[in-house]
Amino acid sequence: MTSDQSHDVVFHADVPYRGGSALDDYARERCALDLYIPLDAAAFPTLVWLHGGGIKEGARDGDFEKRLGRWLAGQGIALASAGYRLSPHARYPEYVDDAAAAAQWVLTNISKYGGSTEHVFVGGHSAGAYLAALLAMRPSFLEAHGVSVSQFAGFIPVSAQMFTHWTVREERGIERPETTPVIDDAAPCYYVRPDAPDLLVLWADGDIPARPEENEYFLAILKHAGHSRAQGARIGGRDHSTIAEKMVEPNDPAGCLLVDFIRSRAAQG
């Protein structure tokens, strides 16, 4: 683990969130997070961020994650950018369990860095958004790590697959996994319920084909189930990549919605 301080952020790299002799070298490398802590702030909210990459690639220290961490720190919000094991080295639900372990670690340890344990959020982009949505909707993943979904202040999936992720479909031998829709026990939609946590669901108007419809369907059936606290927005002038990449730019609509969502819930006590 290394630390650095510059401008508005204190940076801690390569913080392990899983340990033990059972971990192999690959798991030790992937199961770590980078912390971007606001300088001279106290009781700040924290966003646990899960990167995209189709559950087959991506990293916690990508260029976007670095920019997101420094930008959020300037807003008084900490970022915990977490890696996780990837397919085919890991198979469902192992990478979901990694995401849950990362979220639990932040909830348990962020107070040591000055953060509020009452205001921990979980979000991500694309594949990471799928993982975040599963943690929100299927409580057993977090309960396996001794925490409750109700202990988190909210969940922010950005351009998530709300049906079963196509990499999971591929692992399960589904024919034409990228175009065959499946809603089973690996789909956030499968677990809609009225007591689901607060959610901010974002997607792009030029997103991957059917991605807007998946997110709209997810919000519609949440509402039908009696859940009234989910917010959703289709971001204009964006595609699957730029909805995340432009989030850190001044007055970007997705970035403004994300910060407002976090601040409004943090202000509630």
In CATH, the homologous superfamily goes by the name Alpha/Beta hydrolase fold, catalytic domain
Question: How many discrete structural domains?
Answer: 1
Termini distance? 32 Å
What amount of the residues lies in strands? 15-25%
From the spread of the alpha carbons, the general shape counts as globular
Task: Explain what the structure shows.
- The protein has 9 helices and 9 strands.
- The protein has 269 residues and is an alpha/beta fold.
- It has one domain: Rossmann fold.
- A 9-stranded mixed sheet has the order 1-2-3-5-4-6-7-8-9, sandwiched between helices.
- Strand 8, helix 7 and strand 9 form a beta-alpha-beta unit.
Summarize the structure.
With 269 residues, this protein is α/β, with parallel strands linked by helices. The protein is built from nine helices and nine strands. It has one domain (2-266): Rossmann fold (3-Layer(aba) Sandwich), CATH 3.40.50.1820.
List the helices and strands and how they pair.
Elements: E1 2-6, E2 9-16, H1 25-30, E3 32-38, E4 44-50, H2 63-74, E5 78-82, H3 94-109, E6 115-125, H4 127-137, H5 140-143, E7 154-158, H6 166-171, E8 199-206, H7 211-224, E9 230-239, H8 242-245, H9 253-266
Parallel strand pairs: 4-5, 4-6, 6-7, 7-8, 8-9
Antiparallel strand pairs: 1-2, 2-3, 3-5
Using brief descriptors, characterize the structure shown.
alpha/beta; Rossmann fold; 9 strands; 32% helix; globular
